[in-house]
Amino acid sequence: MGNHHVLNSKGIDIGQSDTWLALNTDELPDGIALSHISLLELLHKQEKFDIVLPLTDLLNAEGKLAGGLLQQLNELLTEHASRVGVWVTSDNDTDTLVGLSDFLLQQDLIVIHVPAFTDGRGFSYAQTLRQIGYEGEIRMAGKFGRDQIAYLLRAGADSFVLSEHDMKSISDISQAFNALASSYDGRDASALPMFAGT
Amino acid sequence: MYQYNYADQTLVEERVAQFRDQTERFLAGELPEEQFLPLRLQNGLYIQRYAPMLRIAIPYGLLASYQLRKLAEITRKYDKGYGHFTTRTNIQLNWPKLEDVPDILAELASVQMHAIQTSGNCIRNTTTDPYAGIHQEEIADPRPYCEIIRQWSTFHPEFAFLPRKFKIAVVGTANDRAATQVHDVGLHVKTNDAGELGFEVLVGGGLGRTPVIGKVINEFLPRQHLLSYLDAILRVYNLHGRRDNKYKARIKILVESMGGPAFAKLVDAEWEAHTKDGPLTLTDANFDTAIGFFSEPDYVGFDALQVQSDLQQQLNANKDFADWYNQNTVAHKIAGYRAVVISLKAGLVDGTYVPSGDVSESQMDALADLSDKYSFGELRGTYQQNLVFSDVQTNQLYELWEQLADLNLARANINTLTDMIVCPGWDYCSLANATTHNIAEQIEKQFDDLDYLYDLGEIRLNMSGCMNACAHHHTGDIGILGVDKKGEHWYQISLGGNSSNDAKVGKILGKAVPAEDVAITLQKILDVYLEQRVSNENDVEAFSDLVNRVGVAPFKEKVYG
After folding, report:
1. Chain B residues 255-294 with CB within 8 Å of chain A
2. Which of A3, A192, B303, B348 is the most interior residue, by most CB within 10 Å?
3. Do A179 and B152 touch (CB under 8 A)?
């Protein structure tokens, strides 16, 4: 994922072995829509197997999966053994996510992009994906902070994209993964302190 | 009272370690300000005009004597020897040093206290009725449910970065003494026809710039669903609440924008699709466990006739005691006991104004001792910024009163005009537009005759230093709002607000008055009341009833001519 580090749920940097190419519409040259690009060519050029696409670019105006791109995706999946992931941002309504559950459940990776440290929707996105039964990898990207990693793990995230700058400014990242080690995931009443012991 | 187990204690200690690390990283320049800000707020730490302010949680207002002693010690060691009790039954320290805060949190953890989620855009301290568990008319004690909510919301990983703060209040009687209708969520304990316990659920109340009364979205939620339903409300809010404008980010704006029924539908859809009857469902055994922490203290039996006759003699013999008994004590479900309200509105002590809700370290120590002696070692904070001893033997009231009077804590003004809710104002809050303490002092000087106050009857006077409305000026019978006009502090007055069952927002009387005119303006308002109230031998029309009946017009006429 570019010049970024990817940390897994244990805080170990898996960036070197990461095979995902994340495609961000904002980074494409002006006027080029995703549907005009050969995903296969792009993967070849970047020497990557697997591609993460912005969910917005897979949808038509009605919020349904658009035909052309789906065909490309299917080709990648069936003919090139690629894996496909989707990239959701806070502009994607969770109702849309729930409505696409059949499609999302098949994906190997869902990246949740956090637009600002204080924007906590990503926590509920992760939770919602787990609620609809998604068992693949949830990867956080964007402006979350290291002090949110422990909460994000409990809300359902598995991995975290950090910039070179973030990695350099953090002396001991492993602490972030172990913060408030005894706290719970918010999902089970029997885990509350007064009930856990009884 | 709830006692921490190993798990609770570990949690607060882990929090201290986490915040110590965050503070050190911030001071070392490693943690950016924009990230440290929400993190410190979730530990109760504000940076105010002159100094930081630390808000310490007192869950649903319940405080043990040993905890109060620790608070006294902390204010001596790290602050200026006093604390300030708030409407949401927390306590604030006005002068801690940023670098001392981790040590203060460690001291708090040693007595099962913390400052977790007392601020920031997360689920805050749950509040309740100060007479919980002792009121004759109670359907069920709300405190076990408050404690369940406390544990559920503490470090809830999904709801720590909400669009805006989130406050929950629970009451167990028909009479609402916790302002539940102006909370983000209000829960009213109810029973259904089958005798099962549950809650009427209100959502979207709040004050601030846009005061709104909460709307009922569920008339009866069986109690086993308490957490899964709250979970659904919070998720809908977290995903759909506005984040583009902090003044439009509270859940009340979301609920108003779509209407209560549509919001209820969203919550129901979320709840029924995902969490209803899931692992957040509480069991009867869970409730038994929670209720077990709030068992009755060891009340003793009395010869009721003897107690009553002794009390009558004391009341007859001493008018000051009788005034205090009438104003500052409350009926108890157990014969021979009363609840005592300790007025933190001392007014002028030796000519110096004591701010509403302020308690000195020596008063804290003394109150801790008195609560051990007279009220099973427990105290409670109230919405009106007072304290309560909930279980005092009637035959010990007189000696308690004498000792409280020595501490300037027995002013017999509860529910009168000078039982004011007052926010700290401009000097202590960087949000405030105007000072409040000087105005409260002016009011104290104007209305220092207790018998006059008793004649006025119950009047709730609330004064906020800005439109954020921490002192709930909207819901006072008389509300005062400080405003800034070209660098000068002016005060806007409203009449007819209410925070209880008849919750409503007061009507603004007219243009703001200058600081020096606040007390004389109040005098004119009260003169109108005394002239126009209707009385018969059994009943005197209350201030609130008169305002309801005649509106603000006659008051406006008198004030502005």
Report:
1. 273-275, 278-282, 285-286, 289-290, 293
2. A192
3. no
